[in-house]
Amino acid sequence: MAKYEGEAPESIGNEVASPDGDGPVHPRAEMVVVLAQQGMGRNEISRRTGIPAVSVSRIAEANGIYFDGSRIEMALKARIAELKQQQAGIALGLHEDIAVARMLLRTARTHRDYAFASKAIGDLTQAAQRMTPEITNHEEAEEVKDALIGLHFQMGLMRDGFEAKYGVPMDSPEGIEIFDRVRQEAKQDD
User: Fold this and answer.
1) Could you give the C-alpha distances from 75 to 78, 88, 100, 114, in angstroms and in order?
2) Tens digit of pLDDT for each residue in 87-111?
């Protein structure tokens, strides 16, 4: 093992922030700070930079950054959405390539050109099918479901309030008449 004469070389562990506290000094520590501010998680920063996770935490803490799970989750969701958008772009490009291969198929003059274009169309079609992102989003469906449940609950409260105030069921002929009259009065007030 080599010995160092004089001072030991700078290490990321002992130089996480400048003495006056205005930010990191070491370039790798600065990388950690920038990535953490972008919402990246400790383990992901460690994987990308090669800096041990424990050092990433120490550097972030020395610079006033703490890893928040919800912020990291939001950044992850945004990154996944970005990747899906890129994937859709690739799928669109493959569809354009299929159109070119179909043109080559139609203009083929030899059996070999015809076979090559046919093979290209098949391969491109399979690739496009694999690259086309899913149309449904489970999380959005869950949000809509939660919103509908909330709406149902609010409508129930409104019905109960109406029936308590007017003393008739809301869906009775008298209740419908009262509801229409109140709605007309509200329109006139606007």
Assistant:
1) 5, 20, 38, 48
2) 889 999 999 999 999 999 999 999 9
Distance CA 15, CA 26 (A): 6
Q: Quote the domain boundaries for residue 122.
A: 85-131
Number of domains, the chain: 3
**Torsion, CA 17, CA 19, CA 25, CA 26, rounded to 10:** -70
The answer on 17 and 63 residing in a single domain is: yes
22 and 53 housed in the same domain:
yes
- Cα separation, 138 vs 72, in Å, equals 20
Q: List CB contacts of 88: < 8 A, sequence separation 6 or more.
A: 132, 133
Please choose, from the candidates 188, 189, 163, the residue with its C-alpha nearest in 3D space to the C-alpha of residue 179: 163
pTM equals 0.39
Which tokens hold the place of 33? Answer: 């700070």
Answer yes or no: are the C-beta atoms of 166 and 175 closer than 8 Å.
yes
What tokens were used for 124?
A: 């491109």
Determine the residue type at 83: L
Residues 62 and 16 grouped into a single domain: yes
Is residue 188 assigned to a domain? no
